[in-house]
Amino acid sequence: MAILGFYWGGHYTWIAIGAFPAIAILDALLPLDQAERKMKSHFWAYLPVWMATLLLPVMYFVFAWSVGNNDLTGLQMAAGVMGLAWLSVVPGVPATHELYHSRGRLARFVGRYGQVAFLDCMRMEVHVVGHHRDVGTAEDIDTAARGVNLYRFVARSVAESVRWELRLTPITSRSAVTVATRFATRSGVHCWPSRYSRLCDLCAGWLDSRGVVLDLDGDCSLLGRGFQLLPAFRPGARGRRADREATRLEPLRTLSRLYAFEITNHADHHLNSYIPYYKLVPDREAIIMPSIIVCFLSGFVPSLWYNAIIKPALKRWDNEYASPAERRLAREQNREAGWKDWFDDEDGRAKQPDAPSFAHG
User: Fold this and answer.
1) pLDDT of 51-73, one tens digit each?
2) Helix axes 105-114, 42-69, angle to 10 degrees
3) pLDDT, tens digit, 9 for 90 and up, residues 196-238
């Protein structure tokens, strides 16, 4: 529908961005969805993933054609740009994420180059070699410490991602060097900058030739970064792996799971990144978060995000699930962030051991 709206032009360009508030309201009102998927056919489960990825560049070219051939007003072009940004992120980011985590070479190739639509062309490298190795630790650029608001978080994440992408961040760990070398050898990481530069230049040149002189880069990159980091935007106790915490803080809303290909049901993915999205099992003991869009929008108002959403969730996590070692880290971060010391007692009533334990390991 969005592509048809771009093609028809006029007020139809509002179709894409108009879906955003509609989905946000509907997702917040629908009941929780903690059911396991019953999909048996990998082909049918992955068909929408492939469609979502392959149609990403199509909608850009159709909109570019519309700008050159339809008499769009400035407001209609702005609506089109916002719609491109929204659809590039959802379903674009989770769809490409699903493909570049696949075992098939073609799926990884398509997922990798599909990222050009949301202008974060080397997310695969940063995500797989960085985030999956360092998840939940101080080195993880995709996880915020307590007290870090959305604005600081996005700024730091963008800067650190660029450093990764330009290979300015030294890798000192022997295991990290092994992982990075193996990944680069298998995936051709060392060739990415020149490949993506040429691809982005070609796309930008074509759009410019059609008269599209818009700040697509800024709009899509900032919005895309914010949305794609939502699953990791859990200001927990940094300095440890967050897999167990991730199993407890999940926005298991009906539409969130559906249109984001289970990216909000994400914890087991970090235990085995090859698990297809439809085989991820929701944690029924999770601390349920609001809709992913509600979380994202509230992040723009830090006081609302802290007081209404994340502090109550983390307080429950700290007092019911965290191990003594995790509680010590959490207390230290609460103190650094200026948050209240909400721990019930010195040793804590949580019975989790210090060693990591996984719900579905």
Assistant:
1) 999 999 999 999 999 999 999 99
2) 30
3) 444 444 444 444 444 443 333 333 333 444 443 443 344 443 4
Query: Which residue, chain included where needed, has tokens 């709206």?
Result: 5
What are the sequence ranges of the domains in the chain? 2-311
β-pair partners for 249: 287
Cα 19 to its chain centre, rounded Å, is 19
Non-local CB neighbours of 351 within 8 Å, separated by 6+ positions: none
Angle at CA of residue 115, ends 180 and 44, nearest 5°: 100
Could you count the other beta carbons within 10 Å of the beta carbon of residue 270?
A: 19
Measured in degrees and rounded to the nearest 5, phi and psi for residue 236 equal -100, -165
Instruction: Name which of 255, 210, 246, 258 is nearest 63 in CA terms.
Output: 210
| Section 143-169 average pLDDT | 80
The helix or strand, by DSSP H or E, that contains position 332, with its residue range, turns out to be: helix 324-337
AA identity, residue 93: V
The dihedrals phi and psi of 21, each to the nearest 5 degrees, come to -65, -35
Amino acid at 14: W
> Exposure of 186 by Cβ count < 10 A (0-12 exposed, 13-18 middle, 19+ buried)?
exposed
Q: What is the largest CA-CA distance in the chain?
A: 68
Look at the alpha carbons of 241, 243, 246, 247 in this order and tell me if their dihedral is positive or negative: negative
Cis link prior to 94 (omega < 30° from 0)? no
Distance of CA 316 to the CA centre of its chain: 24
